Amino acid sequence: MESRPSKEIISAGIVLAFVSLLVQPAVAETKPHYSSSTAKLLLAQQNDVAPVQVTGVKVNNTEKGIEVILESATPEALRPVIKSAENNYIADVPNAVLALSEGKEFSIANPVSGIVSVSVTQADANTVRVTVTGEAGLPTAELFDSDEGLIFTLAPVASETQPPEQPTSETPPEQPTAESNEPIELTVTGERDSYRIPTASTATKTDAPLRDVPQAIQVIPQQVLQDQQVRRLNEALKNAPGVIADNSERSVFEGFTIRGFSNRNIIRNGLRDDTNITSNVNTENIEQIEVLRGPASVLFGQGGAGGTINIVTKKPQSTPSYSFEGTIGSFDTYGGSIDFTGPLNNDKTLLYRLNASVSTTDTFVDFFERERFLIAPSLTWLMGKNTQLTLEAEYSDQKQPNDRGLPAVGTVLPNPNGKIPRNRFIGEPFDEIDKNNRQSLRIGYNFEHRFNEDWQLRNNFIFSYLSVAQNSLFPSALLDDNRTLERGLVVAKFAQQAYNLDTNIVGNFKTGSIEHKILFGIDLSRDISYNEGRVFERELAPLDIFNPIYRRDSLGAELDEFPNEPFISEGLGIYLQDQISLSENFKLVLGGRFDIVNQKSENAQGETTSSQQDEAFSPRIG
Fold this sequence. Notes:
This protein is mostly beta strands. 8% of the residues lie in helices and 51% in strands. It is built from 6 helices and 35 strands. Strands 22, 23, 24, 25, 26, 27, 28, 29, 30, 31, 32, 33, 34 and 35 form a 14-stranded antiparallel β-sheet that branches. A 5-stranded antiparallel β-sheet has the order 4-5-9-8-7, with no helix packed on it. Strands 14-20-21-18-19 form a 5-stranded mixed β-sheet.
């Protein structure tokens, strides 16, 4: 690359390259060719130089077309490799990463007549891709750098090519001969459609490439959820090996076994939120699900040994998008959802997103009806080039019975009376007996400020509220006749409030030739569980599961009442982590966390009945 005064040299070189390609006659066969010298050069650069951060993208109109500017503190380190195809001008910038304040990618449609779109994306963990699509053909391009960044100057081709002027000289133009022909060198590139996501934040709280994390992580992207028409979390987690749902598909609870350990550690956007456990998680507002196998208490505290499930919600985008979906199915299944996103102003500093869904179904089980409603608005304010604030809210309302499933004898085991029909309902089809109503509200924010391309401050907060009106049936025993099922009923109305705040700093620096990515943070949590009414157990008349007779008078006397004792848990965590890059293929992760947790129970008068405080240090090396 040359500086701006020398762009004519580059322009002439590009024009000569295109002219030489046009005048070559057709050859019988061409083979794809990959330049080994270019690959060795790029590999050497990646091994010796830290990835260059592209902190901004600008598109400006010029007299001939547009210029695309990749802003960087070190533009001379950006060395693009051109991989154009058809109408697409494609330039891959190796050893570079996007660090945009307005999102993870940049795109704009129809910036000037003759150019359809411009996009700048992260092609892989260490490659930034610039794609400019022409309307009538491949745009012509010039490259130069400046103090502002790497500049691509592009001009669209005319839709109709004018015939060239005839030379005034009587000397005929020189015709190419067979002896002067040289083989055409073609570079062929391509990408396969894939569900693969190369980075995740669950294991390190940074967007680290999965190959650099010494733990097993699987990312279930939004495309998989959409292609499989997944509507619940336990359905989505069937894609994760080693993860098994603890409850029935028709249960109102979420719980999982990961690597043989019962696990209820479900976090949201990297923050603990225990209300995810006692309410079904709808997938309409989920961007991706990250499954981390193994302990992660250093970053999140109080985690299970089996693993952690991180729910990443959808965020506002700068490119407008509008999605509608409707569902009609068997068993009186009806549903609909919307997903709108885009900018609210011309400067694209205010971005919004709105997700909403509603559904109802009778299901294949007798008397088992399910209703769901969800609305999730979010707003992103790009406060400056290096600062952004995202506000998120989500409200959901779910109604359904709590079906515990059928007895093993008569389903998976033989029963002398025959096989129990799979659509058999063992509860009572009356609202005052079988209905469970769960309402949840979540409000939070995410604040990010980048001091420079190496240091960043992040502050996240979420408030969650869950209210549950529960009439939960539980089968107690199948009598000796193998057909009479004894049952009971728990009547409860309880609530849960959770407050979680996390603040951390991420920085990059070097000690000699060794690269470090340091993470230091503090998180605070407060969780309150309490009853909003009486909680008691009642009798329910036995049921003949082969010839059921449902009746309202099945509801019997009260057996036991549970005291109303609010439970309060408060926690403080301080964590430190260092991701050390000793070489391209040798990474070391060191970390530690110190937790202080205080728990107490109170009676109805607000007096403390029991309390305890624990402290623990959790180390990590990988």
